[in-house]
Amino acid sequence: MNKQKHSMQPIPSHDEAVRQDFVTDFRAFLTDEIYPKITPYYQSKIEPDFIKEHGRKPEDKKEVQNVMLQDSAYQSWSFLQRISQQMMFTSVIDTVERTLDELIKKTKKYSELGSLELDQTIQIPRYLTAYDIHQQPGGYHTENTENDISAGVVYDISLPIYSGDAMGDENDLLAQATINFIKNNIKTVPKKILDMGCYIGNSTLPFAKAFPESEVYGIDVAAPGLRYAHARANALDASVHFSQQNAESMSFESNTFDIVTSCLFLHETSHAAIPKIINECARVLKPGGWMIHMDVYPFQRNVVEPLYDFLKDWEVINNNEDFSGALREMDLQGIFEEAGFSEETIEFTSAEASSETNKGYTGDFYLKLPVYVAQKMA
Ligand SMILES: C[S@@+](CC[C@H](N)C(=O)[O-])C[C@H]1O[C@@H](n2cnc3c(N)ncnc32)[C@H](O)[C@@H]1O
User: Which CATH number does the domain housing residue 148 bear?
Assistant: First the structure.
């Protein structure tokens, strides 16, 4: 199968492709075959043993964690799941290293549409440098050579392995869901759109294509992703203005955008960053403009489901997604109101992706996606 989805992507050698296919299947096996067995296994073995010992069910995720982490079947799945993420990156890094010089040369050619502005003085926030986020070696920002794009390429070609090809040919499934949401609910034709934490533009390009009359901007702190984003946008014939900026404090003038959006971004920041980012969204939006962030489930829930709560934290504990659990517990409603979004427009809801974009995984996980929505007061 030809793995190259656009001309900025490298073509893996035969052996690299075979390794990448193996990891794709291995991950699909762990996700589709083993993961669904955890709940019935817990209900038939772990919980009854706990009840025998304590005379009651576990009360919270901590109690579930104490028993699950001692269980060899759970340990095996969790270990393999963590290792499969490392194998995914190892399997694509060879391809990227082998082709990097050629790809960097290509970025010069793929530069006509849109623009790219980098800021060499930018400080990468500590929440992105303290550890390798979701185990990507070097994270999003590390540069090892001049005009490096390798971290961006690695991200691009590992996503189909991560998701079992569920994100669509242009990794655009999630952004398509946000666009569906805008078309069905907001019904505005935006003149200016901003995508925060855009990285390689997966979540940005679909806006340029869906709203061809609009000016589309993408910001991120990580230069390797932005350089690749600009070249990738050109390879995919999309015009986007990319710039290296921290979403906590942007250089855009106030009242500039009709829509400010983000995708898989907020959960990779921090407690301190969230109110600053939301304030910035309110500042750069025009009065009456809309903010739409696609991010993690669940929203604030009042029910305690100890096993569910424990499993939801797997990424936090094992995949270096440290803030994703804490984001779920923040008072986002309060933060949105404080920033100037009108109370009655704030919604924590879901956006539907089309099953046609999704070429692989067929479950709900990739089809009904969480969005946090609010309108700036007019
Ligand atoms: C999981 S990636 C999502 C990329 C893209 N939106 C997508 O859907 O594929 C999160 C991105 O947020 C960026 N990021 C994190 N904190 C940021 C901040 N304060 N300002 C700008 N970008 C940030 C990271 O560099 C990373 O590229």
Answer: 3.40.50.150
